[in-house]
Specification:
Largest sheet: 4 strands, antiparallel
Shape: rod-shaped
Number of helices: 2
Distance between the termini: 59 Å
Helix content: 40-55%
Strand content: 25-35%
Number of strands: 4
Length: 82
């Protein structure tokens, strides 16, 4: 009788944890949104986008030939020039 109860408790804890992980993943911006935010701040052609920790790093080729990296926080959307 105790084994089914332990299993039920385990499944409840697992499902709550899984739901929290899903909610956290849904709170992140997409790569496309990160590029839009970055190019609004630093106009140019997007060369590359990568994920470094909590930030998307968007590499942009500006019209004057300079290459800049712009960091976009994957949750808040905050933009920082690197």
């Amino acid at each position: 009788m105790q084994l089914p109860l332990c299993f039920a408790i385990f499944m409840l804890v697992f499902s709550l944890t899984f739901t929290q992980v899903q909610a956290a993943q849904q709170d992140t911006i997409s790569k496309k949104e990160a590029v839009q935010l970055a190019t609004t701040e630093q106009p140019g052609k997007t060369l590359k986008i990568s994920l470094e920790g909590d930030y998307f790093v968007v590499r942009i080729l500006q019209s004057d030939g300079r290459i800049v990296d712009v960091k976009v926080h994957k949750v808040t959307g905050e933009v920082k020039k690197d």
